[in-house]
Amino acid sequence: MTLGLLLAALGTIGFSLAENQMQVSLAVFVMFLAQAAGWPSMIRLVAVWATPVQAGRVWGILSTSSRVGVLLVTWGLAEYVAADSVGWRGLVRMMALVTLPLAAVYALL
Asked: Domains of the chain: which residue ranges?
């Protein structure tokens, strides 16, 4: 999980600094690779914490909550970018700076 968060932060920073399509593509690839790292952890978590009868419901809740979270953050951050206080690149860098301490916390657990 720690490596996934670090990769996500690095990809996000790379995306905010990208100056051409190749750099954007590489940064997005790194971000998607990092996001994919979270699913094996979730599979293990559900297998340990939920009974086979509960597993479907738990997966439904996890999947729905991740999509709802993305939707809410998108709406909120769109308003922030529209206010043009830091621009989209600054906002993306701020998200990366929030992710780095989370990776440190996971590393210590």
From this structure: 2-108
What does the pLDDT look like over 47-58, one tens digit per residue?
999 999 999 999
Tokens at residue 92, please?
């993306």
Q: Contact at 8 Å (CB) between 95 and 12?
A: yes
The tens digit of pLDDT for each residue in 60-99 reads 998 898 888 888 888 877 877 777 777 888 888 888 988 8
Show the tokens assigned to 5.
């968060």
Q: Which residues are CB-contacts of 106 (< 8 A; sequence separation ≥ 6)?
A: 1, 2, 5
Q: Which are the contacts of 10, defined by CB distance < 8 A and separation ≥ 6?
A: 30, 96
